[in-house]
Amino acid sequence: MCLGAIYLMSLLLILGGVCKPNFFWNSRQVLVLRRRFGDRGTQIFYGGIGISLLLIACIYYSPMVVGVNLVRFLIAVAAAALLIYCLKSTSKCKRLARQSNQTFIKLGLAGKFQKRLEEWNSASLKRELQQRVKTDTAERLMSSARIKNPGKSERWYLEKVLYDLKRGR
User: Can you give the three-state secondary structure of the chain, one letter per residue?
Assistant: First the structure.
């Protein structure tokens, strides 16, 4: 029973590392690993754990005399499979990059990071504007710039207001 559970866990880890099903690949723990190692590193990590569990189960299950030959055979098969997998995956790097980008967009993280990046880039302009005029005046100038020129970025409005203040408009 225990060996069956180890076989099942190892096959699920290998399947999760290679095929990337959504229930497995977008879980919280996998997202942490993906941030740390990237998609390829996470695949290798889970594949390695799965293969090692499979080898442990095979070693435990096989008799001692045949065990040495079986271990050598399994290590050779695992090395060949890993080599084939690495060769195939290097030719698919662009497709994997597109898939990871689409996953990033599907999770809704792209908008959050874009907004945070925009705020961070415009922080120095906000400080400069607040040094030139008071806070309420800066807010009024920004709102009038938004009304006159709709659809622009926050940074554009800040640059316009600062440019107008420097020119004395």
Answer: CHHHHHHHHHHHHHHHHHHCCHHHHCCHHHHHHHHHHHHHHHHHHHHHHHHHHHHHHHHHHCCHHHHHHHHHHHHHHHHHHHHHHHHHHHHCHHHHHHHHHHHHHHCCHHHHHHHHHHHHHCHHHHHHHHHHCCHHHHHHHHHHHHHHCCCCCHHHHHHHHHHHHHHCC
Written as one letter, the residue type at 87 is L
Same domain, 44 and 68: yes
pLDDT digits over 90-120, tens only? 555 555 555 555 555 555 555 666 666 677 7
- 139 lies in which domain range? 110-167
